[in-house]
Amino acid sequence: MPPPVRSLRVLDTVPAFERYWQTVRSQPVEVQIERWENEYMAEWPELLEKQKRAYSEEGANWKRIARTRIFPHLPERLPRMRWLHRSLLKSIPRSWSRTQEVLKPGFPVRFIIYVGIGVGAGWATQYGGQPACLLGLENATENAYRKTRGKPGVVSHEVAHLVHDGWRRRNGLRGIEEPSGPFWQLYEEGFATECERRIEGPGRFRLRTGRPDWLPWCEAHRAWLAAKFLRDVRARTSLRPFFGSWYNIHGHSECGYFLGAEIVREWAEVTSLKEVALLPEPAVRRRMKSILVEMAKR
After folding, report:
1. Can you give the pTM of this predicted structure?
2. What are 4-21's pLDDT values in tens digits?
3. pLDDT by residue (tens digit) across 247-270?
4. Rounded-to-integer distance, Cα 188 and Cα 172, Å
5. In terms of residue numbers, what domain contains 168?
6. In total, how many domains does the chain have?
7. Which one in 21, 102, 187, 260 has a CA-CA gap of 20 to 30 Å to 177?
8. How far apart are the C-alpha atoms of 184 and 178, rounded to whole Å?
9. Contact yes or no for 187/260 (Cβ under 8 A)
10. Which of 151, 185, 211 is at the close of a domain?
């Protein structure tokens, strides 16, 4: 019997967004952005600040991105956003219950549904001092997500990040957001994606990429992807094509999630998922690089 979902908490900001949008939909984009910041988001200042900080840490101007990539497209995306909003309210309890069964997080998680400025479709973080999963509808309905029937995997993937971080901190290790570098990013995203596969099942794995040929393509190019990742790391080339939903490798986005999950799955076969989660940072980097080198030869 699945565990109770009493630890499920959902903050739904979409009704407030709809009220805001009714008053700005015919106004210039600059006015929409100003009022998004000062009216709609004003009720949740921490959520607003997180989004702004995410861009400032990358040296990006959030208003420029909002003006060019987000707000001009909201009218065409609104029907999908509304459909996805209804779908999430139904699917979050099921996904959270299944995640509890598989990962047994042992702590409550707040799910926040909002319309933001493209920071991410799913984002594992802290909100109000507690673990939270932020679900940005504007990002989830862009590009790859528009043809999917739902949003499987986002909830389980982001909660897996929170569980991973919690396990490490409780064992005196640095949290997943603290270390940096390409091999660490591949490790933490690979861990969450392997958890996602176990929770959602192989038939629903990464369906949110929006392309039915995504998984077969990644499997057929497994060694090539491993070799490319190593080459890009050596050349100090941006790894955004491996992870960013706005980027792609030969038309396939988020291939780094597949590659990382393959490494973690292989690794967990000789130990356990929990032990993989609790390795010290230097060991993670060495092991990830070693497996990639071997994988590239196959």
Report:
1. 0.80
2. 445 789 999 999 999 999
3. 788 888 889 999 999 999 988 888
4. 17
5. 154-298
6. 2
7. 102
8. 10
9. yes
10. 151
